Design the sequence.
């Protein structure tokens, strides 16, 4: 069910144990060969592929395209909310649904920079509603909901997502090929080791002059199709667990 297509009396009749999905992504630079709206487009495509399997069992809010993208602000076109502002925005969205009586809220994320404020938002919300024991508040990034893509996806070069690299470029070729520029001429930008396992504060110029990380030239439409289906399957698995939650257990 898509919230934006319903009338308010329709919403009033929905069981409050139906999970609410709030998709969150970004509008930010994606190198020389990918559009600014990449993260939002790809999350939208993943959700489109989940709809036939679980769409009737969830309530999906419109995608929130503004993300926490300050680390990309050196490249023009990026739009970003300050981390604290973004955290408060997510908290407010969830709070709206809680005020309407909904008890299972899942932020589905499509941009890595949203991860920290997103997790903090659900943590703070649980403190706010600490006396409400039937709440389930989740924040999950679609490419991190399962194991890394299986070996059945032939020829993958990257072992992780990157930024406008092989994975994202492949998925964009599969979903929105007309928006992809000359990725085959994009040079590899290695992931490196940013003092792991510590977490390093960084901005994109620290890592990459052109604005991408990974191996865009290794992208293919076939890899993109396989990746999209794999990630959509992981989303369906998570949301099925949310639907089936008994409303009180820690385990799910």
Sequence:
């Amino acid at each position: 069910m898509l919230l934006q297509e319903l009338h308010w009396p329709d919403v009033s009749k929905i069981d409050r144990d139906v999970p609410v999905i709030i998709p969150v992504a970004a509008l930010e630079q994606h190198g020389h060969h990918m559009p600014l709206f990449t993260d939002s487009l790809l999350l939208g495509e993943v959700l489109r592929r989940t709809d036939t399997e679980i769409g009737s069992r969830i309530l999906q809010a419109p995608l929130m395209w503004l993300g926490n993208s300050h680390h990309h602000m050196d490249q023009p076109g990026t739009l970003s909310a300050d981390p604290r502002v973004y955290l408060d925005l997510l908290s407010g969205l969830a709070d709206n649904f809680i005020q309407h009586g909904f008890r299972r809220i899942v932020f589905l994320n499509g941009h890595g920079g949203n991860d920290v404020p997103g997790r903090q938002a659900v943590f703070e919300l649980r403190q706010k509603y600490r006396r409400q024991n039937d709440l389930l508040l989740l924040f999950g990034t679609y490419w991190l909901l399962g194991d890394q893509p299986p070996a059945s996806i032939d020829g993958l070069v990257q072992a992780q997502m990157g930024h406008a690299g092989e994975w994202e470029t492949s998925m964009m070729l599969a979903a929105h090929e007309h928006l992809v520029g000359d990725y085959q001429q994009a040079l590899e930008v290695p992931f490196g080791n940013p003092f792991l396992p510590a977490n390093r504060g960084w901005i994109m110029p620290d890592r990459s002059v052109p604005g991408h990380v990974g191996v865009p030239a290794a992208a293919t439409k076939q890899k993109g199709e396989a990746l999209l289906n794999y990630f959509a399957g992981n989303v369906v698995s998570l949301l099925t667990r949310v639907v089936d939650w008994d409303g009180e257990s820690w385990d799910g």
